[in-house]
Amino acid sequence: MEMPLIVTILGNFGFPVMIAIYLLIRFEKRIENLTEAITRLQQAMKNKL
Asked: SS3 breakdown of the chain: % helix, strand, coil, rounded to 5?
């Protein structure tokens, strides 16, 4: 493979893939926090009833 072709492929596919992975990792922690909050809310509601 020629070097410009490799650079083009990385530019077209590598960057978007890295951004997607980065965002998935960041959102995973937020989703875990939301899941914990929902679980605590469910427990609080059960205790009130």
From this structure: 95, 0, 5
